[in-house]
Amino acid sequence: MRFVRRFFKSRMGGQQTDFWESLRRPAQPLHFVRRKFLLHGQSYNVILHKEAATNRLVVQGSSFVVSLSPCTHENFERFMEAWYRRQARQTFQSAIDHWIREFHARGIHLPAPRMKIYAMRRAWGRCYYTKGLITMNLHLVKTPLPCIRYIVLHELCHFLVNNHSKDFHALVESFLPDWREVDMRLKSFTREQRVLE
To answer: What CDD domains does the record tag this protein with (predicted)?
Structure first.
């Protein structure tokens, strides 16, 4: 070993210290987080890279590969909530844009509402029609995409019919004929996956 060190020292000069330190340095550890995470109705496990240079999440197959530093429980929870909020905003806005186009195609010129996202326990969404605002449940992004589109449509329809009368349900059904099946799927998924717990 001494011979090897002398050889590298003669060849590498001042770089030899960094070289030996890199050999001693342990490989970047990998850790599996022992709980599942949901996105758009799919279940993912988490592979955690500690001491990463950049905090990020990459979806690889059925895994979320999370690079995080410093890797503390609190930092991980904050990182995941921020990531979920970005996914939720993008997903919900895409659904809003889709339905607004559908309304316009039928000659119903509904202005695109403002949207706020909260983690709620008792509602998937709320419509404040006098304010041009809908609030969406952060946890909804964990459910299947058809369920997300249904809830967004439900809230948008409240701008036209602000109750749950027959007229309201007829309006929803005119855009989404199978809304009852989707509603049952959402309730079943929420119960089985404990989305709101």
So the answer is: M48_yhfN_like
Amino acid letter, 145: L
Could you tell me the residue ranges of all domains in the chain?
24-82, 84-193
Tokens of 114: 């403002």
CATH architecture of 84-193: 2-Layer Sandwich (3.30)
Report yes or no on whether pTM surpasses 0.85. no
Listing DSSP states for 113-146 in one string gives: PEEEEE--SS-SEEEETTTTEEEEEGGGGGS-HH
Q: Amino acid identity, residue 189?
A: F
Q: Are the C-beta atoms of 123 and 137 separated by less than 8 Å?
A: yes
Chain-centre distance for alpha carbon 1: 51
